[in-house]
Amino acid sequence: MLNIRPLLFILGVFLSTLTAFMFIPLLFALFYGEETVGAFMIASLVTGTCASASMHQGHRDKLRLNIRDMFLLTSLTWLIVSLFAAMPFTLYHGINYTDAFFETMSGITTTGSTVLSNLDTMDHSILIWRSLLQWLGGIGFIVMAVAILPFLNVGGMRLFRTESSDWGEKAVPRTQNMAKQLFFVYVGLTVACGVAYHLAGMTWFQAINHAMTTLSTGGYSTSDSSMAAFSNSAHWVGTLFMAAGGLPLLMFVHSLSQRSVKIWNDDQVKGYLLFLLCVSCSLAFWLWQGHEMTPIDALRLASFNVVSVVTTTGYGLTDYTAWGALANVVFLFLMFAGSCSGSTSGGIKIFRFQIAIAIMREQLKQQFHPNGIFKERYNGRAISEDIIRSLVTFVLLFMLVIVTLSVILVMTGLDPTTSFTGAITAVTNVGPGLGPVIGPAGNFASLPDVAKWALAIGMLLGRLEILTVAVLFHPHFWKY
User: Fold this and answer.
1) Model-level pTM?
2) pLDDT at residue number 15
3) Could you list the residue ranges that cross the membrane (predicted)?
């Protein structure tokens, strides 16, 4: 039986947190004398009232959650927070609720797809609210990926199970302590990124917004030109901190507590960094040879765009679809990659590719030595059968969702390129797709409302690693 009261209480806590953050854009609106003052006042009042009612109805002395509660809570939290967080957009002139929800879900899930234009002249309060949504979504996903998903054994995540991935009574203090450490490291990296952006020529407002959307690997910008509006130095800063956002945040926590950095002891981190280096250098060499660029410019453009797509940030710097057929194919495959588990990025994640390669290697050895016993290991741990089953299920569902979403988009009248890459970019949380409509030089404003709702659902599924939501539709989930 589901524990409704604890679920209500926790949802109330999340909504009260959202209410508190609504006061930040409200202050910006008051300071700049913007028309959005009323929108944020109404939104904070409604959200705060619902939060108080939910916490009052759900309050109890002991908070105990079982595995079914955790599955339902994870999905409900992201959905309900998005529904309330969309209010400032829909109360803002010229934005209907479909566009507001799409923009909010894209922000909360750190996807970065947008339906808004004229960002250079948009109200400061709306711009800071978009950035805050991505920043909150980033830290929210990190805590979920470290503390909850391994416990739920989603998509092979049990490999990264820590002592906090256990929701018994003794684990709650450990989880709270871990969440606090992750939050402070996240804030510290955001501040460092903001200072670096300011030193690279951005105003403080631009630097703050881009720092939040860089560390969260979200990709929202304050300009329609995205990162192309800023200096080459800002591009290098963005590349560095996007790559940092793709690393497991828990690694930074351990490095600070142990006062040593041991990157090369982690197979996932090592594979991620080598992958970025190899792809960026290869593409830079190809640009230098065939597109009349200097080596430095070629490396800057290649590394920024590769890191942006692999970490699913989705910043626009240049229209890489104009680089030729090879670049289009490369970036199409990069959309699937993702970076590290425990980071803010989406996608399939590097560790799943590494495990698949390890399984393939084991199978090849078995072919040559049928009577041999081979057991591949990952990060010093044996790859168990349940991890393999979970990973295979995840990948199959991942592809099934993309195919289904592509079909739905085609049925709304969109062309195949927009439909297919739109589905990919939603489920992988990348942001821009390919083609003239939703490519790096376009946005999602012209899409039909049905397509926007479908893509918003795809973003949620991708952010929650598919299985977390899919299990809710299984009849056995509701039987007991």
Assistant:
1) 0.89
2) 93
3) 7-31, 37-55, 76-95, 132-152, 183-205, 234-257, 269-288, 320-342, 391-411, 453-473
